[in-house]
Amino acid sequence: MNHFLHTNRPTPKPWPTRKPSHRSPLFFLALLFFLLFLLSYYFLAPRSLSPFSPLKTQFPQCASFQAATPGEKFLWYAPHSGFSNQLSEFKNAILMAGILNRTLIVPPVLDHHEVALGSCPKFRVLSPTEIRVAVWDHVVELLRSGRYVSMADIVDISSLVSSSVVRTIDLRAFASLWCGVKDFVCFNEAHKQSSLLDSLKQCGSLLSGLRGNVDKCIYAVDVDCRTTVWTYQHDVHGMLDSFQPDEQLKKKKKISYVRKRRDVYKTLGPGSEAESATLVAFGSLFTSPYKGSELYVDIHEAPRDQRIQSLIEKIEFLPFVPEILSAGKTFVDKNIEAPFLCAQLRLLDGQFKNHWKATFLSLRQKVESLRQSPLPIHIFVMTDLPEGNWTGSYLGELAGDSRNFKLHFLREEDELVTETAKKVMAAGHGLRSGFVPKSRGIGGSKEGCHSRIVPDLLLYIEEAVCSCAPLGFVGTAGSTIAQSVELMRKCGRCTMHAV
Ligand SMILES: *[C@@H]1O[C@H](CO)[C@@H](O)[C@H](O)[C@H]1NC(C)=O
Ligand SMILES: *[C@@H]1O[C@H](CO)[C@@H](O)[C@H](O)[C@H]1NC(C)=O
Membrane-crossing residues (predicted)? Predict the structure, then answer.
């Protein structure tokens, strides 16, 4: 922005000529004051003095975006990691949007671990701007490769939207207005060669906060879990959180972070600098309980705000869209046809590859406890271990004992999975729900505008099957997928009956 101010900066008076050898302390003092004057001019001069309005010249998209969405305020954030993590961030984003009364921009489902945050407890995370940039790049890549699937295509938010507790807009619909790109959804082959990708990348840099905050246009939240725990409780605003980096870490990493609890409404709501911005952009909204506190978002109840209290209750459990739930039921009815146990065995990834013993032990114990049931015992297995590698493990043992056990599982290439993917894409819940700028030809059901590559719904259908297992569920300790199934079993109204 400096070059704007440069044009109308007063020309400094030339120095009185002096011989270098005779520079007095007074000279240095004068120099110091002059520098201070210059600096303060740079940073404190009111922007309105500038003959150029930064908003109009540098960011024309903001003005035209505001014209297209009069009065509407938006919120976006940068999801990351695996699906279960993205879902929990999505819930936090719905909550933030509700509290700040902003329209939530619904993101796509990101590829598993394509974007990673880092570790909050170790105070080693991507900055909000870095993660927003990474997410935007990935979004553009999903569009380019025809693999874009909205979070709302998978997770059913229709009851939230229809009860108008939150307003939403699909990221594609938002970005087509924000970036001034027409026909964004039907992102066809011809576009690949064009400058469309470039313009998307470019407008992403404003969206990500790379250009900083722009008055009345974007407010890019620049705090993260190293310094902030969001609350919705003004009487603890500004207080230290109970979890702080310890001295050893501070010394080793040379960090000076202090974690404070901040009221999100007070910080970003009415009366704040952020309030007037059309778009408020968070970084990650990942949180998790840690050492008696929360890593980033600590909003579990809102006793003084009935609207938010009911929103918190509503988002505790968000079901999958009907197409996915019904695929789960179909599999149970047509393929399993008997009471069954579900085993979720995460064996290959990261922390899980060293815990085979514990994982199999809990399954063995559960299976032993079912010995009284009529044989064979039906077990639905969801695992990342390829079938060819089962030999030698407890899974191989179960698979080999067909008199006592019958194992069931789904594969990515099964017709049920691919057909469900087509149904989900055709339903297009994401683009149909929420705020749709119709003038742009978005939100229609034009054939050929769906993603060209059907999404991989295997995990979600598996979870739907497991949510209904009458003989119980054995999950992998520490797996967010297991937590998600437990939640579905607790809150989902599974209408399937034991056959
Ligand atoms: C929220 O925003 C909408 C539209 O932007 C407005 O009509 C409504 O009154 C606001 N609600 C609250 C609780 O501030
Ligand atoms: C699974 O089997 C393949 C091929 O037999 C082998 O290369 C691979 O190392 C195995 N993986 C594990 C985790 O055992």
Answer: 26-44
User: Is 178 in the same domain as 76?
Assistant: yes
- Distance from residue 410's CA to the centre of ligand 2 (Å): 20
Strand partners, 220: 281
With beta carbons less than 8 A apart as the criterion, state whether 77 and 280 touch.
Answer: no
Last residue of a domain, one of 254, 283, 315: 315
Residue 102 Cα to ligand 1 middle (Å): 8
- Partner residues linked to 344 by β-bridges: 382
Return d(Cα 97, Cα 247) in angstroms, integer.
36
What global pTM score does this model have?
0.84
- One-letter amino acid at 122 equals K
180 with 269, same domain: the answer is yes
Q: What is the pLDDT of residues 224-253, one digit of tens each?
A: 999 999 999 988 999 999 999 888 888 887
Same domain, residue pair 159 and 267: yes
Closest atom, ligand 1, to C-alpha of 103: 5
Query: What is the domain count for the chain?
Result: 2
- Choose which residue among 75, 101, 265, 435 to substitute to test ligand 1 binding: the one with the highest number of ligand atoms within 8 A of its C-beta: 101
Residues with CB under 6 A from ligand 1: 71, 101
Q: Quick one: tokens of 2? A: 């400096």
Closest C-alpha residue for ligand 1 atom 13 = 101
pLDDT, tens digit (0-9, with 9 covering 90-100), for 43-71? 444 333 333 344 444 567 788 888 888 88
Of 315, 348, 382, which residue constitutes the final position of a domain? Answer: 315
Interatomic CA distance for residues 55 and 63, integer angstroms: 7
Ligand 1 atom with the shortest distance to the CA of 101: 1
Structure tokens at 114: 């394509």
Q: What is the pLDDT of residues 408-457, one digit of tens each?
A: 999 999 999 999 999 999 998 998 877 766 554 444 444 445 556 778 89
Residues 168 and 247 in one domain: yes
